[in-house]
Specification:
Rossmann fold, two-stranded antiparallel ribbon, alpha/beta
């Protein structure tokens, strides 16, 4: 099972039809792209459904004699089998950020049965990184060496892939999902489908080497930091360092690196892009594709409330508690019993499970005070402000891609990020996907844009590796209020 991603010629978002006939042609082309993207998106959902049909037993009752301390993982090894690798040594060995702590071969498959494989060889890695307080921490991930040669210019390039978060539980780590055929099922609602598998496969087919971080606290046992600017950035940058220090790869120490991410991964890639000059100046970062970033978390509350993605607020609360332990008591005191249950469940469950459990809920019943006042008062206001992107200048070209009607990560935040980076002299290309809103409460415009624009983003990355001149548009950024927006 392989998800195919068609390549479409770029069409400028702000392009205006010159004639009625031309307008009809533009509309037809947009409709073709929309229908093709819907078909791809439907194929992903059908693949997930087929995988679930094959993997889910008739009953969700645990097997007789099952070990409660070793949860099942239908179709692959039980969770406890991962522990020897993912438990960091105490104390961590001496070293610097990016040093390899341990490795092991990693099965990588495109489907749970292992019939479809990536064109590459996987290595599971644990490497040294830096947490939000400057302390060393162990992070896990996967390096994939492509089978195909690199046909472009210069040495083989590396993409530091910042994945879309699949949940905060250790079973949701992407390095595990890649081993499990991009599908985890532990019984009843404990499942998640890793929908970025098609992008990983396509990048390998292009000859790009990949390193995919699990982020701090996911995979390796410890508190999660999903969406927290500094530790997600360091996890991405140190994964690139670790990949270059792995023995037996086709990478060179001075070879080019690109950053890639969408949604939560786009936020992490954006943070890594602006921190790279100061945190990892030795890396030759030649570009960063930043898809649908949460550029300003203070704008997100109204977007998540009442949507299928309301559980993202639970992820954020858990990450804030982990990253700012001094604020944990006040945050927990603000929660009702339902809110505590919400936070506890989103801490240990994967994305698909919490979406099913909490979709379309409103957030106010989870709090015993006005939620909007809480998010605009201390300490939450300062914590959110610290996660805002745009305060540092990326030295590499960046491409920001987002849908105008993104229902989860506001377009205005990404547009402001482009302005902030442009004002500092960065090389910025800002692309607005104009697919009209469709079932936005279930996040269609957020996810569908990835499949519409993903191949365009990969070509942009390939151009950076091949030295093609960039096309920044800081002087032509769209207004904050587009016609009809």
């Amino acid at each position: 099972m392989q998800i195919l991603i068609r390549r479409y010629p770029p069409v400028e978002a702000e392009h205006r039809p010159r004639t009625r006939r031309h307008a009809k042609h533009v509309l037809q082309e947009r409709n073709k792209r929309s229908l093709a993207a819907v078909a791809i998106f439907t194929r992903v959902l059908m693949s997930c459904a087929v995988a679930m049909t094959l993997a889910v037993p008739v009953t969700s009752a645990p097997a007789a004699g099952a070990d409660p301390d070793c949860p099942p993982n239908i179709g692959y090894q039980p969770e406890c089998a991962y522990r020897p690798f993912y438990t960091p040594p105490t104390p961590l060995p001496d070293g610097v950020a990016g040093d390899i702590i341990r490795t092991e071969p990693s099965r990588i498959a495109l489907d749970p049965a292992g019939h479809g494989n990536y064109s590459g060889t996987g290595t599971r890695i644990m490497y040294r990184s830096t947490d939000g307080r400057g302390q060393p921490v162990a992070v896990s991930g996967t390096y994939i060496e492509p089978d195909r040669p690199w046909a472009g210019s210069g040495p083989r390039p590396l993409i530091a892939f910042a994945p879309f978060h699949q949940g905060l539980g250790d079973q949701c780590a992407v390095s595990r999902l890649l081993s499990e055929g991009s599908f985890h099922y532990g019984g009843f609602l404990d499942f998640v489908f890793y929908f970025e598998a098609g992008f990983v496969a396509t990048m390998l087919d292009r000859g790009f080497a990949l390193v995919i971080t699990d982020y701090q606290g996911t995979g390796t046992y410890g508190p999660p930091t999903a969406g927290i600017r500094v530790p997600t950035a360091t996890a991405v940058l140190d994964s690139a360092r670790a990949a270059k220090r792995l023995p037996g790869t086709s990478l060179t120490a001075d070879g080019p690196v690109a950053l890639w991410g969408y949604g939560p991964g786009g936020t992490a890639a954006g943070a890594a892009a602006e921190m790279a000059p100061s945190y990892a100046p030795e890396l030759d970062v030649v570009g960063a594709w930043i898809g649908a970033p949460m550029a300003d978390p203070s704008l997100s509350l109204d977007y998540a409330d009442g949507s299928a993605m309301v559980a993202t607020v639970g992820y954020a609360l858990n990450s804030f508690v982990a990253a700012f332990p001094e604020a944990a008591p006040s945050l927990r005191q603000a929660l009702t019993p339902r809110g505590l249950d919400f936070v506890n469940k989103t801490r240990y469950e994967c994305a698909d499970e919490v979406i099913l459990k909490f979709q379309f809920r409103h957030l106010q019943p989870y709090f015993n005070q006005d939620i909007r006042q809480m998010f605009t008062a201390e300490p939450v206001r300062s914590m959110l402000a610290a996660q805002k992107l745009g305060t540092l200048k990326p030295s590499a070209p960046v491409n920001i891609d987002i849908n105008r009607f993104d229902p989860l990560n506001p377009w205005v935040g990404a547009r402001q990020l482009a302005s902030d980076w442009c004002s500092q002299g960065a090389d910025v290309e800002f692309w607005t996907n104009q697919q009209p809103p469709f079932l936005n409460k279930v996040g269609v415009n957020h996810l569908l844009t990835y499949f519409v624009d993903g191949e365009r983003g990969m070509q942009w990355i390939a151009d950076r590796f091949n030295g093609v001149p960039t096309t920044p548009n800081c002087d032509r950024l769209p207004p904050f209020e587009l016609p009809g927006g």
